[in-house]
């Protein structure tokens, strides 16, 4: 595909809260990203996706994809660099990481670079770098002279603390995003959503980047799907109550849910989908569809698997993410693109007129869901 001309930062709307149609469209994107179609068997806890989303929404103001998009759009009003940290999974089941995370980070990076002129740096620990590089390479031809950069975040607490400081000082990011990235619990341990504890030394302390950002006033966004990822410290007690065994881990009976919070938390059914929802909301702000297409989604998953990543639900080297095959993900992307296209098809004034009515309906749906009525 030919490279598209990027929108200069000065052309991005400044009053993002008033962007016509953003809230209503983001509500629709949020409903899509929380569609639970992961396998009913295999150890991934069923039935927690929508309640976890509701818990996140109750402590934040409105559609989560809109919150993330606004924060990013505001941060990039004059351009700048965004750091996106991703990668999850350890040996022996996932020695090269999983297919959830790198595609989402790459799609979000594409939307930020293509639509807002951002410079994007993708970060991952060593084992996950091949899948992250392969995902970024899918969009290399569209970004021309300024492709997404990929850098390693080292293991070790002292090394991680120094890396966090150095990355923030060198890149001066205007925002930092964490996608499907494990965060520590109250004992400093890392876990999968099933409650399995990661062996000591196998997970880089990327959460230290969130701590560094907090001390410097850099906004942070966490995107995840289970509660163990960076960002869910914002609603730790609520998510723990939803997980099996009260969110207690094995074998030490500490918590599965991380203590690391972010300024904005987006909870989705699949972390990649959360990134796509944010890219869709950014599209409304930018005034054109920044989302990738179904064939890109297939290429992203294929690139990840070719680079050594595996399906996180099964541990198999197959074209799937969280137990859902590539065709299913491609169909999801097509539907999400349609939501954005429908929003952009009408003049801004008409989009504004429908905003209040649509938002009221969505709020009623989520209130009923929280009370067990949907």
What does this structure look like?
The protein is of the alpha/beta class and 374 residues long. It is built from 13 helices and eight strands. The protein has helices spanning 22-33, 49-58, 64-75, 102-116, 129-137, 140-143, 157-171, 207-216, 236-242, 271-286, 294-306, 326-344, 348-370, and strands at residues 81-86, 119-124, 149-152, 175-179, 220-224, 264-267, 320-321, 324-325. The strands form two sheets. It has a six-stranded parallel β-sheet, with helices on both faces. The relative contact order is 0.18. Mean pLDDT is 89; it is low at 1-7.
DSSP summary: helix tally: 13
**How many runs of DSSP E, i.e. beta strands?**
8
Which blocks of ≥5 consecutive residues have pLDDT under 50? 1-7
The main β sheet shows up as: 6 strands, parallel
Q: What percentage of the residues does DSSP assign to strands (E)?
A: 5-15%
Write down the Rg. 19 Å
Mean pLDDT over the full residue set = 89
Distance between the termini: 42 Å
Shape: globular
Organism: Antarcticirhabdus aurantiaca
Protein name: DUF4392 domain-containing protein
């Amino acid at each position: 595909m030919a490279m598209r001309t990027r929108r200069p930062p000065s052309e991005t709307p400044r009053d993002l809260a008033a962007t016509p149609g953003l809230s209503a469209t983001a509500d629709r994107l949020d409903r899509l990203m929380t569609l639970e179609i992961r396998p009913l068997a295999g150890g991934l806890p069923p039935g927690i996706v929508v309640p976890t989303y509701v818990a996140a929404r109750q402590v934040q103001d409105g559609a989560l994809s809109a919150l993330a998009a606004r924060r990013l759009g505001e941060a990039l009003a004059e351009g700048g660099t965004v750091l996106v940290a991703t990668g999850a999974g350890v040996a022996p089941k996932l020695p090269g990481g999983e297919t959830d995370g790198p595609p989402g980070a790459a799609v979000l990076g594409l939307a930020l670079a293509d639509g807002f002129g951002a410079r994007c740096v993708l970060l991952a620990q060593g084992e996950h770098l091949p899948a992250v590089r392969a995902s970024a390479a899918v969009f290399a031809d569209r970004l021309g002279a300024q492709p997404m950069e990929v850098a390693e975040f080292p293991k070790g607490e002292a090394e991680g603390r120094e890396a966090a400081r150095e990355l923030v000082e060198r890149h001066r990011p205007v925002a930092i995003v964490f996608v499907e990235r494990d965060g520590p619990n109250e004992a400093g341990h890392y876990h999968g959503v099933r409650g399995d504890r990661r062996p000591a030394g196998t997970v880089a302390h990327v959460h230290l980047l969130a701590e560094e950002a907090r001390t410097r006033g850099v906004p942070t966004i966490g995107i995840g799907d289970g509660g163990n990822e960076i960002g869910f410290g914002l609603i730790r007690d609520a998510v723990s109550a939803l997980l099996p065994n009260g969110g207690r881990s094995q074998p030490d009976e500490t918590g599965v849910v991380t203590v690391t919070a972010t300024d904005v938390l987006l909870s989705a059914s699949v972390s990649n989908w959360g990134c796509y929802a944010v890219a869709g909301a950014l599209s409304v702000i930018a005034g054109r569809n920044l989302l990738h297409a179904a064939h890109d989604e297939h290429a992203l998953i294929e690139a990840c698997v070719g680079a050594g990543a595996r399906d996180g639900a099964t541990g198999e080297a197959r074209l799937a993410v969280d137990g859902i095959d590539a065709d299913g993900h491609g169909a999801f992307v097509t539907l999400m693109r349609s939501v954005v296209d429908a929003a952009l098809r009408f003049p801004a004034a008409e989009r504004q007129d429908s905003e209040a009515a649509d938002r009221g309906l969505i709020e009623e749906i989520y209130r009923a869901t929280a009370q067990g009525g949907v």
